[in-house]
């Protein structure tokens, strides 16, 4: 009798153990391998910024990134929102600089690989992106003439060793910008074309230095990558590369039934595209229509790839050249964020709408219609266990 | 003694049930062979039969997430190259409710009926459609290519 119970228990144990072993189809294995960080290609040179891989430029960029002097009132730097010990983001639903913005701070790992910048892609290069918060009245709130004077006074020698001689700023107003206050705009308009070009040139180089620094911020391997490597080589996973049953289920759902991998693809878990996924607006924030309103902004930006401040030739401007300018699906479309490290940086979405991954998964399963435009997400039947499994898998991208 | 037999019988019954369930699970598991998808031929007559169109990546391979150039080759039914064609391109992913992530354009004529289509970008795997509206001296026609990645 006792023997029989033992035999039965053993049989059940063997069957259960068999079920617990990760069992992926060849197609699943191929998809999982495509997500591994080992598949991330080397960072391409940025020909629009000839200082992108100049160490002295990156060093100056790093100084500027953390320098509170790079703001109107000396209280805000890039690192105020892009916090070095918090994946270069700030854990807030909306970023707070000099004022309260309407968007979530994006983390920076792998940012130099993006074709478009900000949640709506309103800039087309990392160096053009870096210039935008500097003059945004809610972020660093400065103006480009003031930045040029500041660089000359504070970092003149370092600047000139990298970029060559600074222009003569003696006749240039201390505060002037085409985007500033009325007084700053008036001062800008009163300047000569040569003066404006000189200021814009220094300003563009500030962005190029900051971009050179940001190129060094790259994603690091996670438990998922160790698991994926073992899966692709057929090695027995060891230590933390062993996935729990829930993590395996979550991964299967991610690349299968839950369709997450449709947009969250490649080693960075993003297609670098813009999608309306029905994320609701936040009450009290200004109207936000996402990508559709960013098209005009990137086209009008004097620091875009077609502009006079690009280094290299125009062949680097493919993204801008073949930009989708008007399509209904641009309405309330936002960038697909990378999921690497996401589990440890709530809240989620472009204005921090969801405070946990459970809420994110619930949103995608429900697939509520968009307030404007059409959501690309379709409703999905997921059990409680499946939802928890998806979250469990996502956590392996943060460990 | 009788009770031991009863347990043994019950054990065998359970084992048989388990074997049955496992058999069903394994036999109904999805196969690797895919159901028939859309027509992915790279050469086909245009919708009204005016031209024969071929569409292929210029470098032979398709890379996800990269701007690419493809070649659209246009011939008449008799095999003569179609020159001076105006080409408009649209498309998207029919299963995802979205269009193309870029606006590809015919940027160059390479001779022999070959047109370079620049600015294509496939951002995800799945079923893509590319629709060409072609206008040449012989007339106007359209053609749709399916690209499954």
From TrEMBL, chain A:
Pfam families named among the record's database cross-references: CCP_MauG (PF03150)
PROSITE patterns: CYTC, PROKAR_LIPOPROTEIN
GO molecular function ontology, one term from the record: cytochrome-c peroxidase activity
Residues reported in the UniProt entry to bind heme c 1: 78, 81-82
Domain Cytochrome c: 245-398
The entry's keywords: Heme, Iron, Metal-binding, Oxidoreductase, Periplasm, Peroxidase, Signal
InterPro entries on file: Cyt_c-like_dom (IPR009056), Cyt_c-like_dom_sf (IPR036909), Cytochrome_c_Peroxidase/MauG (IPR051395), Di-haem_cyt_c_peroxidsae (IPR004852), MauG/Cytc_peroxidase (IPR026259)
Gene Ontology cellular component annotations, sorted alphabetically: periplasmic space
Tree of life domain: Bacteria
Required cofactor(s): heme
Location within or outside the cell: Periplasm
Residues noted as binding heme c 2 in the record, renumbered to the chain: 260, 263-264
Signal sequence interval, chain numbering: 1-17
UniProt remark on cofactor binding: Binds 2 heme groups.
KW Iron (keyword) present: yes
Post-translational modification: Binds 2 heme groups per subunit.
Protein name, as recorded: Cytochrome c peroxidase
Species of origin: Mesorhizobium qingshengii
UniProtKB/TrEMBL annotation, chain B:
InterPro entries noted in UniProt: YtkA-like_dom
Name the record gives this protein: YtkA-like
Pfam assignment, any one: YtkA
Domain YtkA-like: 70-131
Organism: Mesorhizobium qingshengii
């Amino acid at each position: 009798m006792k023997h029989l119970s033992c035999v039965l228990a053993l049989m059940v144990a063997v069957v259960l153990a068999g079920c617990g072993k990760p069992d992926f189809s060849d197609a699943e294995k191929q998809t999982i391998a495509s997500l591994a960080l080992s598949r991330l290609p080397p960072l391409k040179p940025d020909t629009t910024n000839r200082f992108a891989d100049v160490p002295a430029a990156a060093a100056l960029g790093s100084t500027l990134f953390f320098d509170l002097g790079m703001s109107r009132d000396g209280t805000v730097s890039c690192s105020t929102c892009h916090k070095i010990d918090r994946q270069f983001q700030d854990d807030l639903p909306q970023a707070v600089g000099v004022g309260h913005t309407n968007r979530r701070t994006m983390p920076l790992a792998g940012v130099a690989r993006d074709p478009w910048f900000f949640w709506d892609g309103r800039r087309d290069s990392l160096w053009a992106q870096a210039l935008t918060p500097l003059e945004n009245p809610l972020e660093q709130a400065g103006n480009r003439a003031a930045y040029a004077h500041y660089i000359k006074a504070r970092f003149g020698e370092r600047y000139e060793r990298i970029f060559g001689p600074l222009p003569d700023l003696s006749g240039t107003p201390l505060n002037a910008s085409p985007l500033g206050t009325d007084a700053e705009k008036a001062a800008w308009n009163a300047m000569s074309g040569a003066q404006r070009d000189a200021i814009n040139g220094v300003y563009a180089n500030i962005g190029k230095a900051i971009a050179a620094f940001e190129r060094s911020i790259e994603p690091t391997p996670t438990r998922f990558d160790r698991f994926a490597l073992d899966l692709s080589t057929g090695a027995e996973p060891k230590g933390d590369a062993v996935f729990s049953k829930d993590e395996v289920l979550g991964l299967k759902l991610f690349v299968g039934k839950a369709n997450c991998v449709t947009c969250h693809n490649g080693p960075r878990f993003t297609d670098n595209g813009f999608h309306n996924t029905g994320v609701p607006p936040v009450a009290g924030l200004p109207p936000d229509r996402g990508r559709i309103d960013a098209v005009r902004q990137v086209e009008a930006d004097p620091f875009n790839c077609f502009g006079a401040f690009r280094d290299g030739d125009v062949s680097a401007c493919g993204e801008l050249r073949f930009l989708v300018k008007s399509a209904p699906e641009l309405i309330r479309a936002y960038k697909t964020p990378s999921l690497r490290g996401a589990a440890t940086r709530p809240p989620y979405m472009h204005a921090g709408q969801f405070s946990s991954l459970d809420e994110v998964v619930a949103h995608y399963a429900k697939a509520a219609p968009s307030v404007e435009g059409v959501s690309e997400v379709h409703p999905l039947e997921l059990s409680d266990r499946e939802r928890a499994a998806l979250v469990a898998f996502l956590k392996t991208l943060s460990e | 003694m009788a009770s031991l037999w009863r347990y043994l019988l019950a054990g065998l019954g359970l084992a048989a049930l388990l074997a049955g369930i496992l058999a069903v699970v394994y036999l109904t598991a999805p196969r690797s062979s895919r159901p028939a998808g859309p027509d992915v031929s790279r050469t086909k007559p245009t919708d009204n039969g005016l031209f024969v169109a071929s569409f292929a990546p210029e470098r032979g391979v398709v890379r996800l997430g990269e701007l690419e150039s493809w070649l659209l080759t246009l011939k008449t039914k008799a095999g003569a190259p179609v020159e001076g064609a105006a080409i408009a391109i649209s498309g998207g992913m029919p299963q995802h409710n979205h269009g193309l992530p870029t606006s590809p354009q015919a940027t160059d004529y390479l001779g022999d009926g070959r047109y370079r289509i620049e600015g294509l970008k496939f951002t995800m795997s799945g079923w893509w459609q590319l629709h060409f509206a072609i206008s040449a001296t012989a007339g106007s026609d359209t053609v749709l290519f399916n690209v499954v990645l």
